[in-house]
């Protein structure tokens, strides 16, 4: 529709106007007037009266959004209310990411110097099955390699280099058995030369890997900046490729935990859900979040409505708190975010049509009043008249000639029971702020990094984020848990449940 109007504008000029008769001129003027109103309303959109995030507001408050279309770019809305917006993927470059074929390789200038060593012994004889004892003879060292480990002390942190030695023991039966570094899951991805194998045979220990993931996922640092940071502050050189590998390994290790977390969310009394655009290379996806008071699950998936069903299942017992997106409409026990409606009402109240202003202000008054009265625990003698007035306003305007007014009135009437569910269920929050706050970290990451590149990367990011956010909500240290989970995954041992604060 926009392009059609644009075409008209290009062709219109004084000669065309002069050739029109009176009726045509009136018709054209009306259309131009409608268009001018739409444009001016669009210009005055900001985070207080639309679904735009505060980051799209101009600096120093007030005024119009910066008019370079920046505010309209990919996934502006942390929580789009209504049909999904079309996302333009970041510009694609002609070459593949990473090292180019034929590029000169880089090696470590000098080998890592270990400050101490740690030995690993086999437990049983591989030939006769006898359990080894402390006094069994160490024949030799089968393999040894340096491992970087993060040491947390009272005053700070340091990275130590420890030589891991895998020893060979000689059994009473006369034969030798060697200890071997553990091996975990293999993450397979099409078109990759070397697949990701979780193993203890690596230079970066679990604690340093957890530290790298903290810098990446929680503190939004790029692989390159992490490399610079480690070199500058710890004097440790780790390549961008190895850093990336650590981030993926943690993701693969965290993935089995997500299934547990999802079970916990499904069983919760109140579940918040929200979604935001996400890109995986050129694919426009959604990043979904579902969360309870103590558990959060992030999921990067398609924009199909079924995606939320796959996450939550059909039979959740609790209440679902969401925005107005259609995907959630099938859930019966649902609270729709009232803050979204308030922002829409505010946009109407600031619009240029007098009916819009009247309706918008009316809605604002009643919606705010309703939230405050419920918060102050007022009785039904106060609450019922507010709801009645709100409903009457919508009934009055549901056949209005202006589309925006008509739409909002019908939207509220169509979704009425979900909008006022919090009035009769005092435990339900009237807004979905909880989920929107949880999504913020992903929205910032998307704006900095333009999303992920592969399915493995998406799954890894969502899994790490789920574990970190869950730990945060439970008031436990995510990094010790993640280091332990990775250490287990590298040996092929299954994870422990996410701890609960004492
Ligand atoms: Zn033996």
Descriptive notes:
- With 502 residues, this protein is of the alpha/beta class.
- It has helices at 2-11, 14-19, 22-43, 206-218, 223-234, 240-266, 306-312, 338-349, 354-375, 380-397, 403-414, 416-419, 421-424, 433-449, 455-474, 478-491; strands spanning 116-120, 137-152, 157-170, 176-178, 183-187, 196-199, 270-280, 283-291, 296-301, 319-322, 334-336.
- Among the domains are: 1-39; 117-202 and 214-234, no CATH class; 338-424, no CATH class.
- It is 44% helix and 16% strand.
- 34% of the residues are buried.
- The structure holds zinc ion.
- Zinc ion binds at residues 125, 127-128, 130, 171, 173, 175.
Offer a quick outline of the entry.
With 502 residues, the chain is an alpha/beta fold. The chain has 16 helices and eleven strands.
List the helices and strands and how they pair.
Layout: H1 2-11, H2 14-19, H3 22-43, E1 116-120, E2 137-152, E3 157-170, E4 176-178, E5 183-187, E6 196-199, H4 206-218, H5 223-234, H6 240-266, E7 270-280, E8 283-291, E9 296-301, H7 306-312, E10 319-322, E11 334-336, H8 338-349, H9 354-375, H10 380-397, H11 403-414, H12 416-419, H13 421-424, H14 433-449, H15 455-474, H16 478-491
Parallel strand pairs: 1-3, 7-10, 10-11
Antiparallel strand pairs: 2-3, 3-4, 5-6, 7-8, 8-9
Helix pairs in contact: 4-6, 4-16, 5-6, 6-15, 6-16, 8-9, 8-11, 9-10, 10-11
Zinc ion binds at residues 125, 127-128, 130, 171, 173, 175.
